[in-house]
Structure prediction request, 171 residues.
Amino acid sequence: MEKLMTPFGDIDIQIDGQSVDYEAKEGRKLSQWCPNVIGRYQIRITFVPDGFFNHTICCSFNPSCKFKSEIESGELFESMGFYNNQRYKMSIGVEGEVPSEGDLEYDDGYFDYNCEYLLNGMAYVVLPEIATGEYVFGICWIDDVGWVDSSESSVHRDSETWFGADPSLTL
Prediction:
């Protein structure tokens, strides 16, 4: 199966460190939130835990360029933003929350899993006994956005990938 190609490298999905096949579904540009994005995709992974151990489902890219990253969190939504020196910005998002430092488990009443920030992506931490069976990653990128751009136009374009990578926004 072909991998989703982005300006940062190919997207890899791994479950417990082993790459798995996936289908990346292309989404539409949402005129209100992300009209200028170049790529907007969702990857849905079905996984049922064994009831004994935590499992990790990672969405990351194999870097083909130098990049900088930053956390882009929101309410019930976690994302990492990535910037490269070709003026592309990409966000990878998950629906969920990253637990506070030191918390082993997160219980907010919404989710029965945790999320983690990765250097080059995002991950779901699937707890041993959960009901959730599907995990969605949102991936979105745009051009003409730099790490230190401060003009009003650049700041608006920068936020478009955050909206586009939100898995709760339908394709």
